[in-house]
TrEMBL record:
The gene is nhaD. PANTHER family: SODIUM/PROTON ANTIPORTER 1-RELATED, SODIUM_PROTON ANTIPORTER 1-RELATED. This is Sodium:proton antiporter NhaD. It is found in: Membrane. Belongs to the NhaD Na(+)/H(+) (TC 2.A.62) antiporter family. Residues 44-400 form the Citrate transporter-like domain. Coiled coil: none annotated. It comes from the Bacteria. It is a multi-pass membrane protein. Pfam families: CitMHS.
Length: 452
């Protein structure tokens, strides 16, 4: 029998606690294993209060990742786990992280290239100059957030539309707060039906549980998830019209070309997987090379002194993006350590064995509002529960939109708290949690109705 009977104290821990076929221990009652769980939960509290503490979320998680594997190594040494097996357990998730890292890096470089060419600033200036009233601006900004998120990801979308809302509603704090709430909902909902819209959808796509076109089955559930809270909150948007601004920014030379190359790169990622049988990140890297070659050619054909072409796509890949990537790495390794200690197996047996897949996936979506959807989704992918295609789409949807219920539940909410500081806060978002939950339930019901 490979499972550990831990009731006899520390002396009962032995090498039989190691599951050789799954490279994991089963030592849930070991004092050090309990300490590891407490360290993880404590570090996540620091992540939740990132905005208050001004502590980047990657820092406590990197510390926790290292400490958790130190604890796992100590327990493994006590149980006689070999060095090779321990090393294999640590590097188990490295390939998956490397693939996601390269994929996200390419997307971030493209987004920063578009920002440098003032593509998003031109959009903001266009909306500001149209002279729309507050309610129209509410629907336009949230609608764009819903449509832009599948391409630009929910974090970037929230930052862009948050800047627009702050610019046009600077004299109306209520408009800013309420619109930011719906932008978070819209960005997360839009990201749920696209592999590029959120890290969690990208993880599901990369893991092979859904093809690129499978995600579009979640379009109508995402629309319902967005429209229910947006329709209700729109009734409370202040009347009137903000001052018309004449601000208008033109897209810099090469901006529209960069947009076309970005869309081409996405098509290459899909083609590499569906036609050539190659991993999507390879298509993204090939598409990135096209951007680099285009920049080189432009610099050669235009005057070298022309400031309009003297830019570096890496120069704006700033702290927030690296913080996100390092946070993602840390979460994967924290969850990997907890999985090595046997926690994920036990949780999977309770949630998916006793509750059933539907209840487990809906609950996981609610948890993603508290814990963040990245560790929730990675934990489920690591558990590998026996689910059909419908259920994998359900967890993709619930993990993607569940974070909208709290401002700290998604990258979009955390980003907006920084952009609209003092106007959009944890408490202003919490006031609408019941309305957002209605959208969550409505989206799930739509998925069952259309895809069940």
């Amino acid at each position: 029998m490979h499972w550990l009977d831990a009731c006899g104290g520390l002396s009962s821990y032995n090498a039989h606690a190691f599951e050789s076929h799954s490279n994991q221990l089963v030592v849930l009652d070991h004092p050090l294993a309990i300490l590891a769980l407490l360290v993880f939960l404590s570090s996540y509290l620091l992540v939740i209060f990132e905005e208050k503490l001004h502590l980047p979320k990657s820092k406590p998680m990197i510390f926790s990742a290292g400490l958790l594997w130190i604890i796992a190594a100590i327990i493994g040494k006590q149980l006689g786990v070999s060095h090779d097996v321990m090393e294999a357990a640590v590097t188990h998730n490295l390939e998956e992280f490397a693939e996601l890292f390269l994929f996200l890096l390419v997307a971030m470089i493209y987004i920063n290239a578009l920002e440098e060419r003032d593509v998003f600033e031109a959009l903001k200036g266009y909306l500001i100059s149209k002279g729309l009233n507050y309610r129209q601006l509410f629907w336009v900004t949230s609608g764009i957030a819903f449509l832009l998120s599948p391409i630009a990801d929910n974090l970037t979308t929230a930052l862009i539309m948050g800047a627009v809302v702050m610019a046009v509603g600077r004299d109306n704090p209520m408009f800013i707060a309420q619109t930011c709430v719906v932008i978070v909902v819209a960005a997360n909902a839009g990201g749920a039906f696209s592999p590029f819209g959120d890290i969690t959808t990208l993880m599901v796509w990369q893991s092979g549980h859904a093809t690129f076109f499978d995600f579009f089955q979640l379009f109508m559930p995402a629309v319902v998830n967005y429209l229910i809270p947006a329709t209700i909150i729109s009734r409370f948007i202040p009347k009137g019209q903000p001052p018309t601004l004449s601000e208008r920014i033109e897209v810099k030379n090469g901006g529209y070309l960069a947009c076309g190359l970005f869309l081409l790169t996405i098509c290459l990622a899909v083609t590499f997987e569906n036609v050539l049988g190659l991993p999507p990140y390879l298509g993204m890297m090939f598409g990135l090379s096209l951007l680099f070659l285009t920049i080189y050619i432009k610099k050669r054909t235009l005057k070298e002194s022309d400031a309009d072409v003297q830019y570096n796509v890496f120069s704006k890949l700033a702290i927030p993006e690296w913080d996100t990537l390092l946070f993602f790495f840390s979460v994967m390794y924290c969850v990997g350590a907890l999985g090595f200690l046997g926690y994920l197996t036990s949780i999977s047996e309770i949630m998916y064995g006793e509750w059933g897949a539907t209840a487990a996936n809906i609950t996981a979506g609610v948890l993603s509002a508290i814990i963040d959807n990245i560790p929730v989704m990675f934990a489920i992918l690591t558990m590998q529960p026996d689910m059909d295609h419908f259920q994998w789409l359900l967890i993709t949807f619930t993990a993607g939109v569940g974070g909208s219920m709290l401002s700290v539940g998604s990258a979009a909410g955390v980003a907006l708290m920084g952009v609209a500081k003092g106007h959009y806060t944890f408490m202003t978002h919490l006031r609408w949690v019941g309305v957002i939950a209605l959208g969550y339930i409505g989206g799930i019901a739509t998925h069952f109705l259309l895809n069940g």
